[in-house]
């Protein structure tokens, strides 16, 4: 499993963005994107891929997009 966790420090409510690549028992890969206000349940979107390469490319594309919107990698 590969996870990118990013934060955007917007006052008074910081926001988070998470991108996670995972593998299931059926040989498929999924990319979970979750976003929202920190400390609250956010929105989520799950996309399935047939191979790891496509899943990683999609995750990287969404991570870069979040970076352009002001999200920065979480420290620690």
From TrEMBL:
Which CDD domains does this chain map to? WGR_MMR_like
Q: Which Pfam families does the UniProt record give? A: WGR
Superkingdom field: Bacteria
Q: Which InterPro entries match?
A: WGR_dom_sf, WGR_domain, YehF/YfeS-like_WGR
Which residue range or ranges hold the WGR domain? 1-76
This chain's protein is named WGR domain-containing protein
